[in-house]
Amino acid sequence: MEWKKILVNRRLSAFLLLLLFMELFVFWQDCEKNDRKRIEQYGQTYEAYLREQELQHIDTYRAKIQAIMEQADAMDGISIFSKENSFSKRNVALTREAFASLQEIELTYVKGRTVTEFFAFRLGGLCACLCGLAIALELSETGKKRVRSITFPAEYGRLRLALEKLGALLIWAFAVTFLFQAGILLEGTLLFHENPLTFLFCPAQTFAGLANFPIKLAVWQALVLYLLYRTVILYVIMVLVWSAALVFDHTVLAVGISGGFIAAEYFLYVKIDGSNVWKLLKYCNIWYQTAENDYFTRYQNLNILEYAVNRNAAILAALAAVYLLGAGAGILICCRRYPCSSKVSRLHQAMEAVRVKLESLRGCFLEKRSLTGLEGYKVLISQKGLIAILLLAVLICYRADFTQIKRSTQQELYYAFMEHYLGEPGEDSQREIDRLTEKLARIDDEYGKRYAEAADGEARFLLGMWYDSFSQERLFLKQIQEQTESLKSISQESGIAVWYVNLYSYEHLLKSDDAMLNLGLLLVILWNCIGMYIAESGSGMVCMIRSSHRENDLYRIKLRVMMFITLVVCFTVLLFENISVAAVYGLKGLAAPVQSILTLSHIRIHCTIWQYFLARYLLKYLIFTTVCIGVCKLLETFICKKGLKNGIKSRKSD
């Protein structure tokens, strides 16, 4: 059976378990982080906060549903929404119909933080997607051409084997999705000491995260439906990668093309707004399917040729079309390409020409660089080092924060202030703060007078809305006053002339150096180091290397190659961090004293911001380089047993 090939593959099984443990560890860390943050900022446990939110949701749920129905009825009376055969009228009708059945639901409070955290956790979908990609590449068998050629002896045998592979992909899509989701649910019940029977049989709308789920289902039914939904998504992605590997007939090339496609999908996912006319490309998107969990937490209809189409239905239709395309291409290639005949397709000829050209370029490179080029090719291509680097790139994109692309009024005021008054606090900046303080004080006085003179509740309500319109300016004033007072205090205590700098950018740059990115970088270095040294052990070349008088030269070349790869990877990661922060937040005032960043005000060394970050990044690179050198030396000693020949140590060169 095709699905059993994954079980006997020890590397792939280990990779799957590693991602599972990483998912469980990150879920535990996120829950602990939420608890600590809530206690530090508000002196309240996160569970108590969720309890308040759930109770408020339950108290107001029926009123919210009734408001949706009344709003739909009111929109029918407006001319622009009541036009026949228009999207607006159909959208109103579908919304009313979807939420009408929810008016009868009776909600009572149930302790179920596990459900809330389950739908808020995003990494699980990405981990499952990575496992699915690895399984799809393994079942494509592009690296086992001799075995693959003899497994297609007859026309019907080839078709049957292709269908078996599609069936194996479906089995593993379900198994991986179930494993990762069940792991989170089980860990949640253990962490929060909850009994699953108390929340699995209550209505799904009991929890605020599922309030907009427009179908009457119990929680366990919603979880099963969600499992099947995510299985379909993962299965389609796996089929696409499997067919791409067959089309390009080269694992590394297929991974590179797929990586470029995923990067384009990520660009669409980030740049397209939910109100954009191209929003279908945002929702029918690999990144959206793997990173978002709001299939059942958000109701929306899309305008497709003036028809109101449920967003989830549109996603399923797009997945079905993509699946038919990918599965059809894979089956066609399986049935036509092997065994190879004289009638080779033009696509196959073009891909073969590209492969031959790459091989010739590789040969020229190896001829010029000899052992160095060979070792580099070995670790990046033969030992799949590029795949590890690609996975790190996916992790970096996942961890990138683009939440500040859309700024609130408070943030816009703050950015404008820092842009204009960048530098040491002076009289001009203080006058600006005083003018805003006087303006808000006049508004407070006017509000007090008009509120006392208000004749009825409606007038006071409208007055309150007018007063609340200045809330963003009040938040900005409080923010800039606190920063100003802190800078004055730092100047008095340390004697350093600190500056106004944009704290959003530098504090985010400090937070970007998180544990997950460092762990991913470390795993990439370990993957490449181990792959470089175990290749000789697995191929039986260790004995020949030991008998060569240039053994030390070979290991020095290996070490230099690994140090260069570590340098490139670290530099790329750090460059991406700085570019992403500069693009979203801006990086100005690099010549300011490092104490201008309030979280670094305790530093007593006189240095600028750019000098501090340069030293920080150099230290980080030195740490990873030390790890790289240490791992290489250990592998030389224990795996390759450097310096041993016929049981004799310290062999001299000939």
Describe the protein in words.
Helix 18 (409-420) packs across helix 21 and helix 19 runs antiparallel to helix 21. The two termini are 54 Å apart. 72% of the residues lie in helices and 1% in strands. The chain has 654 residues and is mainly alpha-helical. It has 26 helices and two strands. The chain has a two-stranded antiparallel sheet.
Describe the structure concisely for a colleague:
By secondary structure, this protein is mostly helical.
Topology summary:
Layout: H1 4-7, H2 10-42, H3 46-76, H4 87-100, H5 113-120, H6 123-140, H7 145-149, H8 155-192, H9 196-199, H10 219-248, H11 251-271, H12 279-283, H13 286-291, E1 301-304, E2 307-310, H14 311-337, H15 346-369, H16 371-382, H17 385-399, H18 409-420, H19 427-453, H20 457-468, H21 471-494, H22 503-511, H23 515-539, H24 542-546, H25 551-584, H26 609-638
Antiparallel strand pairs: 1-2
Please describe the structure with a list of short key phrases separated by commas or semicolons:
two-stranded antiparallel sheet, single chain, disordered C terminus, 654 residues, mainly alpha, 2 strands, 1% strand
- The helix count comes to 26
Secondary-structure element pattern, one letter each: HHHHHHHHHHHHHEEHHHHHHHHHHHHH
Low-pLDDT runs: 339-344, 645-654
Strand content: under 5%
Total E-strand runs? 2
End-to-end Cα distance, whole Å, is: 54 Å
Largest sheet data: 2 strands, antiparallel
Structure classification: mainly alpha
Spatial strand sequence of the major β-sheet:
1-2
- Mean pLDDT across the residues is 75
Describe the global form.
globular
Share of helical residues = over 70%
Q: Nearest-angstrom radius of gyration? A: 30 Å
